[in-house]
Amino acid sequence: MPYIVGVAGGTGSGKSTLAERMVTSFEGQALLIRHDHYYRDQAHLRLAERAKTNYDHPHAFEDDLLITHLDLLRHGESVWGPLYDFATHTRQSAQQLLEPRELIVVEGILTLHSPELRRSYDLKVFVDTDADIRILRRLTRDMAERGRSMESVVEQYLGTVKPMHEQFVEPSKRYADVIIPEGGLNNAALALIVARLRHALQASVTSQE
Q1: Domain span including residue 52
Q2: How far is it, in rounded angstroms, from Cα 65 to Cα 145?
Q3: Contact 75, 61 (CB under 8 A)
Q4: What pTM did the predictor assign?
Q5: Ramachandran region of residue 89, left (φ > 0), alpha (ψ -120 to 50) or beta?
Q6: Fewer beta carbons within 10 angstroms: which end of the chain, N or C?
Q7: What is the pLDDT of residues 23-43, one digit of tens each?
Q8: What CATH number is given to the structural domain containing 71?
Q9: Is residue 209 part of a domain?
Q10: 193 within a domain of the structure (yes/no)
Q11: Cα 6 to Cα 1, 76, 205, distances in angstroms
Q12: Is 68 contained in some domain?
């Protein structure tokens, strides 16, 4: 039975780095699922209309699909997960094969918001990073990886990212089992979590013998 971890935190908090390092620590045993790929498909809208969508609101995500996929993975079944094109704001025609692993890590800004989604996790982690650091990381990433202009990134941050963080992301911190400052750069916290996960996986194996 897989052990499922939800990793949440604001944009640029370091949650992706933390999740990636967690998975790397369990090479061959872990699967990383990015909540961002479960954005609802917007292919029915014009590109200009897609760009206006509030991607930091819970309604932007198809959580029901993610919950279904996690349930199937928990029961040993492989699933075809969506892939999202962040440049066109649509789902790609290609999909990714998600196969059951002993450890499954789900990361994203709102992975702890939905009560139904929270029930899918065995461990809930929130990455808590100063807002100034987060916006600088967001600016750098979107300009370098997503072809965005500085003006568009700042406009989106002030218009939707910041208010949605305050309304939905930050409050979800109260549901976390563990709160980590600075995300993937916090080596001490990472070591503690990895140790806890190793113990949980070992206990799961022992209980099945």
Answers
A1: 3-204
A2: 27
A3: no
A4: 0.90
A5: left
A6: C
A7: 999 988 999 999 999 999 988
A8: 3.40.50.300
A9: no
A10: yes
A11: 16, 19, 21
A12: yes
